[in-house]
């Protein structure tokens, strides 16, 4: 290039390149004037293309001048003269082949550029057509894609085509075309401007479809649009604190007299009464009749004045009115006094002082609440007993009851005896020591006494008239002893059938004839299997401590005895069962009567009840879980296994010699070991467990009742049903594995409404029952010691996982296995 600058002959080549750049710029400006300012990118590309063309021309010129000088040197003056002349524009250099170079003249270059331009316009024809249609849709103002310009001038395209056709370097058209295409595409992407009506409609429908799909999705996911709540002007200041004001500032009282009597209610225009308010007090303040009479008298006075009645006649009329008002007031006061005597005098009396006919539903409700009685007797109304006179017992039985010292019936007796006397099936749930024996024994004896005499004469061949089943021998013997006292003077016979005694002796008593038989399920089944016992005419059966019999595994024997009984079961229809019970009470027909008494109702007992009881009357005394005796004070002592012996000796050292203790242990062997230890410490005690013979067990119970010794060491055999009077203290030397057994153990004290005390010795080995024990203490309103309340085992039931995922202690088996 330095040689080109020094050589003056090459000046026209440089000038030609600059002129081409200027012409390109001028063409661009003309295009801008006609079609608006082109994009900056198109202008920049045009300038770059012009510079490239100038450099290509310079290179071609330099190559030609060098060749001319060489020719001038070789050809002499002629060559120099040719070099001095003005050179024509040099042709463009292109590659014709792999090793061939072809030069194009200016005319050829223009033809080539024109051909390229026509090809480009043919390719852009569809897009130009769409743009024109869009401009027609928009209107005269032009579309947004046109940059806000008006419609194009007619012939502008032809003029521009002509100028472009005569312009050198058609490459500028291609650059501008590419720039305009890019700008139009950017415009369409920015706002959809330049699209046809069909395309815009399709876009609108697509947006609408997407919105509907999003709405369905939000509805499926449960999303709710949070709407702004519009607060009413009346609610805007409702929650703002309002300061107090004095009553004297209330101006509404002066403006409206209604506010002075806003609390006065006059139902039926003064003739009615307001519910919940004493009617007598309302009558005292009611002045409706008096106001009505005064108004009528005032109307009579005005009528007399208008009629011109003489003064003497009006004086007489006025005297009559005054006397009438006095009589009305006297009648009203007399009526109030009579009502007070008739209502207050009766309603104010206690239910004990009222006659049976004067008892109202409210009185019976108060009566049931006083004794905590809950009864569900079905369709017929059965009233509980207030005293023994209302039971209508036979004279001999009534005399026996008085001789036993039963001044008043116990709660379970008040509710169960009337139901049993009506030959209804009973489910009785009550705590231990509540008088359940008398509750079922008295109706059973009354049933036997009301039967025809021929039934009693057939007892040796047809079997007893009534049957009582108990879970243990001791309980059966206790019931038989009490029944024997109640049937004195009635001519009835009773007998017990329990294990541990010769079965032949019991068979001989049955052969002689027995009216009432009391036994355990196992021995009764043995007597039936041995053909010593038949139940052909036994239509009255009592299951005492039914839950205990099921727990001890006697369910199969109980069902076998029930299936052996004769008689007809009542209908499962409640209405028909009530009719059959009435017929049985009148002696028209015999139907089986089943009474079931228990402290709890486990599922197995409910299953037996559904199978053999018909429309039973359910009687509950106390809470639903009647074993929770709140009269018993419960104490807990935390110690160790070696420390138990010292603790029990300290507890048995009582200052009162008349106190009686029952010490419960879990195993028979431990019972014997503890008894020997107490004997060594000079504490006389008896032993009661299943390993002893029946005679030994009866002897221990008799000696304990008579006060020969005041301490009885026993297993759970003595925990259910035994009525040992005056037991002041129960000690759980071993904590039972089930809270139900704990409930029955402590129930040996605090019987018949008396206070009692129960002490339990606890060790860490008893932690699996800490949770149940804590709940039981809370349910009986007892204070939970901190050692138990804060213990980890008392926080969750055994078998559940704590917060760390650790399984708490498992429950122990109720059956204790010995180690060999």
UniProtKB/TrEMBL annotation:
Family: Belongs to the DEAD box helicase family. DDX23/PRP28 subfamily.
Motif (Q motif): 386-414
Skewed-composition ranges (Gly residues): 65-81, 140-150
Natural source organism: Nannochloropsis gaditana
GO BP terms in the entry: mRNA processing; RNA splicing
Region (Disordered): 1-93, 115-207, 300-336, 789-820
Listed Basic and acidic residues bias regions: 1-35, 156-207, 311-336, 801-814
Record-linked SUPFAM superfamilies: P-loop containing nucleoside triphosphate hydrolases
Gene Ontology MF term list: ATP binding; hydrolase activity; nucleic acid binding; RNA helicase activity
Domain Helicase ATP-binding: 417-619
Domain Helicase C-terminal: 647-792
Reactions mediated catalytically: ATP + H2O = ADP + phosphate + H(+)
Keyword Iron: no
Organism domain of life: Eukaryota
Alphabetized UniProt keyword annotations: ATP-binding, Helicase, Hydrolase, mRNA processing, mRNA splicing, Nucleotide-binding
CDD domains linked: DEADc_DDX23, SF2_C_DEAD
Sequence ranges assigned to domain DEAD-box RNA helicase Q in this UniProt record: 386-414
SMART domains the record matches: DEXDc (SM00487), HELICc (SM00490)
Keyword Disulfide bond carried by entry: no
InterPro entries: DEAD/DEAH_box_helicase_dom, Helicase_ATP-bd, Helicase_C-like, P-loop_NTPase, PRP28/DDX23-like_helical, RNA-helicase_DEAD-box_CS, RNA_helicase_DEAD_Q_motif
UniProt protein name: RNA helicase
Pfam families per record: DDX23, DEAD, Helicase_C
EC number, as in UniProt: 3.6.4.13
